[in-house]
Protein 1
Amino acid sequence: MKKILFLLFVCFLSFSSFTKMIHPYHVGSVEINYNPKSRTFEVTGRFFLDDLENGLSKKYGKPFHFNDPKYKNQINEALKSYSSEYFKLKSDNQFLKVNYVGYEEDSESVNVYLESEKVENPKKVEAAVSFLYNLFDDQINLVHIIINGNRKSEKLTYPNRYLYQQF
């Protein structure tokens, strides 16, 4: 079921006409991938561009426009703050500092990049993921945690924001 939902999400992002109309589903994905070389978790959140614009606008009370270079600094500051509030990560019962790295956009979606501080051989991973919960009460976030090629996925539906995986 989780794979089907993820494939549906990817399909939705691939149709350019889809985002031109109001999309009926509010879905995002968050991949938390442990990199053994850097010993950090590399996090990529992918969201519909219009949803993220609206979520930031609602949160900070001013307009945000991706695909407009004059908003780039404002968007970076907002995403840094937004990510620190709506994403938390623990490894082996210790909160990890997570740094905002940047974002990339296309006409339909936005990738938000984060990276954790260093951690040695994580066995237990806990995350609090609530991206766009401030905008939609039907938001779904598909969360994938990958450690040493072992992938575990979970669907978080508003208001549920917590997940735990043992590796």
Note: The longest helix spans residues 72-86.
Protein 2
Amino acid sequence: MSISSEHPVTAEQIRAALAALAAEPATDAETGPEGAQGEDRLHLLGRLLAMTELLITTATRLTEDGEIEDVLETLHGWGEQVGADPGLAVNVLTNRLQRTALQVSEPQAEELPPGREAAFAAVMTAVYTLGAQLHAERDDTEGTRRALSGAEEALIDTLQGIHDLRVAIGDAVGQEEDGTGGRPGRSGP
């Protein structure tokens, strides 16, 4: 697969793919009778991606053995399509992680519950860590440092969110009194 072209797929082609999956969006007054135009490509691609993810989720067995086999089969198909370009693969993974982080963060929410906050930070830890590795491979020491700082901050936020969720369910109550700071195997701060 090559992504060298700025717009390798047109809005009409994406709409046709959605129609083939019985997921074509309704034409509205804003798009006119011609349907979606070039500026709607990313929105349509998002719909196509969602439909693909829903189809994969529906096809994945929910048994311990079957689920991992299905996920691996999907991964093999993904690898065949992306090809042997490790830079492209990391770019796709980073893009996916960023979308996941935004979905986890519930952009419309004013404040996230601690579990979602921790999950968001965990995903961002992965984004920053992948970025740090890419900078390191390019001998970009300053870029690596910035990405590692982001990863460390996100990791701290992950741990804080996990702790806050434990407090919320009552697991952390009284741990501070035992002198271990709530950490098993430690005898002091």
Note: Residues 62 and 68 are 9 Å apart (CA to CA).
Protein 3
Amino acid sequence: MAVGQRSVAVKALQGKAAAAAAWKALSECLCLVAMLDRNIPPAAEQWMADHARAHTVRVRAPQAAGVSARSAVAKLILRAVHAIR
């Protein structure tokens, strides 16, 4: 994974969204904060989660938490699935 990964482009972080924020229309918003992320600072991830009033799970993992924190990611996905049932 590291071989193919590139740095985040500044434009990607400064651009405006083309559509309305989905979290505004959801009954429950969920967020996983990767505490070892080197691309998006964890404090920024946490701020976004707080702004969306999201149920937040923090993991001691890098950005690729889906690989290194599979269990926490799976639990969060299952919570999302149950929320829409």
Note: Residues 30 and 55 are 5 Å apart (CA to CA).
